[in-house]
Amino acid sequence: MSGVAGAVLVLNSGSSSLKYQLLHPETGEVVHGGIVERIGETDVPDHKAALRLVFDEFAERGLDLQAGAGGPDGLAAVGHRVVHGGRTFHSPTLIDDFVLSEIRRLSSLAPLHNPANAQGIEVARELLPEVKQVAVFDTAFFFDLPAAAATYAIDRELAEEHGLRRYGFHGTSHQYVSARAAAFLGKPDADVNQIVLHLGNGASASAVRGGRAVDTSMGLTPLEGLVMGTRTGDIDPGLVLHLGRSLGMSIDEIDDLLNRRSGLKGLAGENDFRALGALIDQGDEHAKLAYDVYIHRLRRYVGAYLVDLGGVDAITFTAGVGENAAQVRADALAGLERFGIVVDPERNAVRSGEPRRISPDGAPVAVLVVPTNEELAIARDAAAV
Questions:
Q1: How is 235-252 classified by DSSP, letter by letter?
Q2: Computed over its alpha carbons, how large is the radius of gyration of the chain?
Q3: Whether the Cβ atoms of residue 343 and residue 357 lie closer than 8 Å to each other
Q4: Nearest-CA neighbor of 147 among 91, 214, 83?
Q5: Interatomic CA distance for residues 67 and 58, integer angstroms
Q6: Residues noted as catalytic
Q7: Rounded to an integer, what distance in angstroms lies between the CA atom of residue 197 and that of residue 16?
Q8: Which stretch of DSSP H or E encloses residue 156?
Q9: Which residues, 6+ apart, have CB-to-CB distance to 367 below 8 Å?
Q10: In this structure, what are the phi and psi dihedrals at residue 254, rounded to the nearest 5 degrees?
Q11: Which of 168, 170, 171, 147 is nearest to 159 (CA)?
Q12: Which backbone phi and psi does 302 adopt, to 5 degrees?
């Protein structure tokens, strides 16, 4: 099977990019995928032009995405990654005018993501009007966090009125990877407690007990938690007040600082781990400090979630850095042997696109690397809806 019939087109619309993948949800077979970048900066003026470009690319491969639309010979659905579902959406949702308007309304909680997600949906609905469109939300896996984990210690009535709580993100990845890890261990989800570390340019950690998320590092927005490529992660809220009162920075300037000019890039001028490693090898002190801060924060969350879960069966690394940066994995878990956590250097050095164990046989805690596949997870959710 390699055609369009029954396949799901998965779209991930960013502010200046459009990632796409056509795949068959039952088998996981990928027909084709790619990314259109620098939308609005090149001869691709907007997302509508980008999606038309995607259609043209498929047509060159003999695949007409618009043929048979809505019928048995056409696409089964279009699945859209949407970052923030707020309190409204906590499961994959068939998109109509109301759903699209709610996604736009929630942009205040994810200003870097939801507006672009909504734009991609609008364009896809226009160009594929007969095909069902489904929104899959990054926050859904964390919707039913225990109240103690989800609640911020601020004025209760204000928080309830405006939906101010920990929502968590990368939920599609955390859910997919935690299930794959349990399957790799040959156990049902209900029998596995694990820490999942989704480490990419954006990074988040989760504590998963028996298949259910009980804590996560990101909060109301994707800014909280681990040190990331360009985001600060956890900071003293008083720092934000200081930046405004003492330095005279505007809200937009503070937003830009914390989201785009912080993290590894803010500390070292680089947010690509390969480039960061090269700087460290050259003796760059700023790069070394950035790396140390990154690892220090990561270890804090591992420790916190060990306590939250009362012990774990597995610690699972995923996403670009988690899957490829062996040194990060080793440093994140170094010195934890007394907790049954050991990384085998030879296994850790192996590169593979398959789930694998990087702890020694017989170690009390399985340390795993499980490649994420958010596109497949979104496709399956969309097909199910």
A1: --HHHHHHHHHTT---HH
A2: 21
A3: no
A4: 214
A5: 12
A6: 138
A7: 27
A8: helix 156-162
A9: 314, 315, 316, 317, 329, 333, 341, 342, 343, 357, 358, 359
A10: -65, -40
A11: 147
A12: -60, -45
Q: What is the DSSP string of 311-371?
A: S-SEEEEEHHHHHH-HHHHHHHTTT-GGGT----HHHHH---SS-EE-SPTT-SSEEEE--
Helix (H, G, I), strand (E, B) or coil at 377: helix
CB-CB neighbours of 251 under 10 Å: 10
* Structural contact between residues 327 and 273, judged by C-beta atoms closer than 8 angstroms: no
Cα 355 to Cα 147: distance, rounded to the nearest angstrom: 33
> How far apart are the C-alpha atoms of 332 and 196, rounded to whole Å?
13
Phi, psi angle pair for 208, to nearest 5°: -120, 115
pLDDT in tens, 46-91: 888 999 899 999 999 998 888 776 666 789 999 999 999 999 999 9
Beta pairing partners, 197 = 205, 317
Amino acid letter at 56? D
Q: How many CA atoms lie within 13 A of 368 on its CB side?
A: 28
DSSP-derived pairing of the beta strands 77-82 and 8-13: parallel
Beta strand 133-137 with 93-94 is: antiparallel
Decide: 375 and 10 in contact? Cβ < 8 Å.
Answer: yes
Residue 214, classed as helix, strand or coil, is strand
Strand partners, 82: 137
What pTM did the predictor assign?
A: 0.92
Place of tokens 């890890």: 181
181 vs 192: CA distance, rounded Å: 9
% of residues, the chain, pLDDT over 90: 84
pLDDT digits (tens, 9 = 90+) for 287-320: 999 999 999 999 999 999 999 999 999 999 999 9
- For residue 262, what are its two tokens? 């912080």
Distance between CA 138 and CA 149 in Å, rounded? 17
364: left (phi over 0), alpha (psi -120 to 50) or beta: alpha
- Residues 139/87, Cβ–Cβ less than 8 Å: no
CA nearest to 374, candidates 7, 28, 132, 3? 28
Strand partners, 9: 22, 78
